[in-house]
Amino acid sequence: MPSVYFDVDKSAVKKVYHDRLNTVARVMKSNPSLNIKVVGNTDADAGEQYNEKLGLRRAEACRDHLVKIYGIDAARLTVETKGEVEQMATKNKPMNRRVDFLPNK
Question: For the chain, how are helix, strand and coil distributed in percent, rounded to 5?
Answer without folding.
Answer: 45, 20, 35
